[in-house]
Amino acid sequence: QKEVEQNSGPLSVPEGAIASLNCTYSDRGSQSFFWYRQYSGKSPELIMSIYSNGDKEDGRFTAQLNKASQYVSLLIRDSQPSDSATYLCAVLDNYGQNFVFGPGTRLSVLP
Amino acid sequence: EAQVTQNPRYLITVTGKKLTVTCSQNMNHEYMSWYRQDPGLGLRQIYYSMNVEVTDKGDVPEGYKVSRKEKRNFPLILESPSPNQTSLYFCASSWGEQGMESTDTQYFGPGTRLTVL
Predict the structure, then answer these.
(1) Residue B73 to chain A, least CA–CA distance (Å)
(2) Tens of each residue's pLDDT in chain B, 117 residues
(3) Fewer CB within 10 Å of terminal CB in chain B, N or C?
(4) What are the angstrom distances between the C-alpha of B23 and each of A56, B8, B31?
(5) Which residues pair with B90 in a beta bridge?
């Protein structure tokens, strides 16, 4: 059974701080990794995808991937109250067919 | 506008009464998928389809059926719904080629909240 785990929440950070979200996965053959944001009652929307070891930056968001440790993280710099949402880590298997999502981490950014 | 649509958005039904939730995408995507979302469990994949007439089971397929007769449509069928299928359901689509941001990013529909009494 392929598994994706995320750090348990909820995670609360003050406005302007860095929020750090972590994810580990069990399928060593996975090649594609995603972070989705989901506001309450809404559908998930993609924030970042990452495929190679290292860091990938997009605005205030930085995704980090370490395939040897089977670890993916998302850093949100200068956190804003509008970042308050549940963040879902997702992993696509090596065949490009089966997506496995983590349970999500709820983030609250306090004004 | 590029989108994934689902209908109905809300449905309350009774045990054993067959139902279908429709999903349609207008992006000519090859890959389509159904998920259910339950508190504390995240999104779990029910079925997926790599292309027309090609479907496969995800992690929680029991009690569900799907079909992919046309590229744009991927209906989810519950032949005999039970209360444990009460959940929030999402349909998603993508180009389906893994390893590229432009092709394996999934786009989600707005969700269907199903209650089975």
Answers:
(1) 18
(2) 889 999 999 999 999 999 999 999 999 999 999 999 998 888 999 999 989 999 999 989 999 999 999 999 999 999 999 999 999 999 999 886 665 665 678 899 999 999 999
(3) N
(4) 33, 9, 12
(5) B35
Across-strand partners of B47?
B34, B57
- Which residues on chain B are in Cβ contact (under 8 Å) with A43? 90, 108-111
Q: Which residues pair with B20 in a beta bridge?
A: B77
A90 contacts in B (CB within 8 Å)? Answer: 43
Nearest to A46 among B35, B58, B105 (CB): B105
Closest chain A residue to the Cα of B54, Cα to Cα: A97
> What is the distance between the alpha carbons of residues B99 and A92, in angstroms, rounded to a whole number?
9
Using a CB-CB cut-off of 8 Å, the residues of chain B touching A104 are 42
CB atoms within 10 A of CB B9: 12
Using a CB–CB cutoff of 8 Å, tell me whether A49 touches chain B.
yes
Q: How far is CA B9 from CA A6, A57, A90, B41, B79, in A?
A: 29, 35, 24, 21, 19
CA proximity to A61, closest of A25, A37, A30: A37
